[in-house]
Amino acid sequence: MVTLADVARHAGVSASTVSYVLSGKRSISAGTRERVERSIRALGYHPNAGARALASNRSNIIALMIPLRTDMYVPVMMEIAVAVATTARTHGYDVLLLTGEEGPDAVRRVTGSGLADAMILMDVELEDERLPLLRATGQPAVLIGLPTDTAGVTCVDLDWSATGALCVEHLAKLGHRDVAVIGEAPAVYERHTGFAERTLDGLRSRARELGLRVVHRPWEGGYDAMAATLSRIFDERPSTTGFVVQNESAVEPLLAVLRQQGRAVPEDVSVVAVCPEQVAVQASVRLTSVAVPAQEMGRTAVGLLVGKLDGRETDDVVLIAPELTVRASSGTAPTIP
Amino acid sequence: MVTLADVARHAGVSASTVSYVLSGKRSISAGTRERVERSIRALGYHPNAGARALASNRSNIIALMIPLRTDMYVPVMMEIAVAVATTARTHGYDVLLLTGEEGPDAVRRVTGSGLADAMILMDVELEDERLPLLRATGQPAVLIGLPTDTAGVTCVDLDWSATGALCVEHLAKLGHRDVAVIGEAPAVYERHTGFAERTLDGLRSRARELGLRVVHRPWEGGYDAMAATLSRIFDERPSTTGFVVQNESAVEPLLAVLRQQGRAVPEDVSVVAVCPEQVAVQASVRLTSVAVPAQEMGRTAVGLLVGKLDGRETDDVVLIAPELTVRASSGTAPTIP
DNA sequence: GACCGCTGTCGAAGCGCTTCGAAAAAGGGT
DNA sequence: ACCCTTTTTCGAAGCGCTTCGACAGCGGTC
């Protein structure tokens, strides 16, 4: 193993000089720097992470806590995780992967051991039990998701409320008067994951302003469940012509059942989805959708965290504005015959 | 910050005693152990990861390299990653998340810096460029996937060749004589990712033995592409009655197009999928499938790695035997009218 | 020419832990 | 009571790095 001392010897300088070349924290003459850099390359030197962490009290690692469960948004989670990992690298950080399994203990462990300099938490619940700990330890953290109380923590999220409003506005503009929302699995609501409730709230209040009627049905499971859900919706509100889907795994079942029932999209009913771009484009009908900006969320979270670690002042809550892209699944509401 | 020395003082013992209580590498009398443990809890002590890594030359971190691209098997990747993270924790390891982006450099960096004790590589290509490095450094590593040359590395994978064979056997047993394989995107083959080619080889050679005819068509993209692919297949081989799908994102398009063409599953055509259990169960037709045992792969990989790190002798190549579950998408071949 | 303020470099201390050899304590036989 | 073995505990060295204060040169100033 090549150590800093080896490099110093090879370059004919002291260890501290090599260290300063590496960190740039003191000025080093061009000649010396050059010589040291050449030695580093010649010997294939890599600074020892542990020693560095010990001496500098900084690990250059960001912990990312992903949910263990896979009942929702797996591709979104994956995309965020990959974006976090790549962005972190460009800032010189590595990413430690924690699963929600350990829960608050993981926060304690990572903070206490100095394993990571900061944390990114996903799958944040409205009253997340990890928050008090985070506030108490003063560990720099960014949440992806928006808890009820954002005091002392930084958050990044899609503006779900605006997303819901945007969907219903789009349908209203096309003349739809009765809208059905196919929501997440009941478990998601029970857990008080913020985004599901917020979307619904935003959608409902905008619908009220615009004079639309809304029914909301959670969904989970398979095609049969979807068929049942749809019959119920059309029984209760026969004049339903607009659909909002917030659950990417519900997209294909919904389209399939509609097709099977002989309802044409977008002639008879319009569908607006909240889902990753890719899902919208690859669906059997190209979907009018509000994209879930997974990458942007991951990138932003890392950006904020690095800002904090560098002592910069950062925003407390970053809400990403939703953007609706019109594709082939929405159109003018059918005129009642 | 609470250090080991603080604990020692609090418990009235020396630092080394505390260390031995923690590591269990020397016997400590029950009384002393008790006292030390009480102090640890009282002070809320967590060993400093950096110091530990420096002194012991072990970071207790496993690096997991996941592919950057998301053109395939995202849920499988995610499931493996989560399984790796959870299993690693039960062995006292944390997981560092690397993306393929850095490529071989990541291997060099992580090995050189002592950031991780070992690596798990996913998305292994037949002639993976990270392999020579791994062999050279002697870094303990486990590949998820099977390269051409497995010398000096440990691999875990589903036995794809047997998987292909199993699928075609099942169809043969049901009386199908002409089988079509809907394969991965062409890019996957061009990259020489082992599993795609192996499945196909296994399937083809078994088919030859059983006297079945096979056509193979890569697929990628949307429903239109699937419709085109199917017409071509039925034009060229009108007597095709068996389908094998190896691409989970192709499942719904295939079923949808078949339905649209008025071909009943399983009465007119049978479909066998290679995909995660969940996809098979939630599809619009419950699919006869060979499950991709993502969790098992992740768990096994960690198990092997921990074994290596503990100096145990481990297998070099662990091939997981495929299991075919019969569901509603396959049945007796229709008799030619 | 003595003095000043630079810039560039060095030496040493110390980060918190593990680990080795050795000392101290505790039994066990005679 | 003694010696010998075994168990338990301690002290000190050292892992590879960062960082602080100090020092050596250097050109410029009065």
What's the total count of β strands of chain A? 12
CATH class of the largest domain in chain A: Alpha Beta
Biggest interface pair, counts: A-B, 55 and 53 residues
The CATH architecture term of the largest domain in chain A is: 3-Layer(aba) Sandwich
CATH topology (fold) name of the largest domain in chain A: Rossmann fold
Segments of chain A where pLDDT lies below 50 for 5+ residues?
none
Computed Rg of chain A: 25 Å
Assembly type of the chains comes to: homodimer
**Average of pLDDT of chain A:** 93
Q: What is the count of helical runs of chain A?
A: 14
Order of helices and strands of chain A: HHHHEHEHEHEEHEHHEHEHEHEHEE
Tally of individual domains of chain A? 3
Walk across the major sheet of chain A and give the strand order. Answer: 2-1-3-4-5-11
Strand content of chain A: 15-25%
Domain HTH lacI-type (chains A, B): 2-56
Organism (chains A, B): Streptomyces misionensis
Protein name (chains A, B): LacI family transcriptional regulator
InterPro entries (chains A, B): HTH_LacI, LacI/GalR-like_sensor, Lambda_DNA-bd_dom_sf, Peripla_BP_I
Structure described in brief:
Chains A, B: It comes from Streptomyces misionensis. Chain A has 337 residues and is of the alpha/beta class.
Please tell me about this protein's structure.
- Chain A is elongated.
- Chain A is built from 14 helices and twelve strands.
- The first copy, chain A, is an alpha/beta fold and 337 residues long.
- In chain A, helix 12 links the parallel strand 8 (242-245) and strand 9.
- The first copy, chain A, has three domains: 4-47, 434 Repressor (Amino-terminal Domain), CATH 1.10.260.40; 61-158 and 294-320, 3-Layer(aba) Sandwich (Rossmann fold), CATH 3.40.50.2300; 160-292, 3-Layer(aba) Sandwich (Rossmann fold), CATH 3.40.50.
- Chain A has a six-stranded parallel beta sheet, sandwiched between helices. A six-stranded mixed beta sheet of chain A has the order 7-6-8-9-10-12.
- Chains A and B meet through helix 4, strand 1, helix 5, strand 2 and helix 6 of A and helix 4, strand 1, helix 5, strand 2 and helix 6 of B.
- The structure holds a DNA duplex (30 and 30 nucleotides).
- Chains A, B: One of its GO terms (molecular function) is transcription cis-regulatory region binding.
- Chains A, B: Keywords: DNA-binding, Transcription, Transcription regulation.
- Chains A, B: Residues 2-56 form the HTH lacI-type domain.
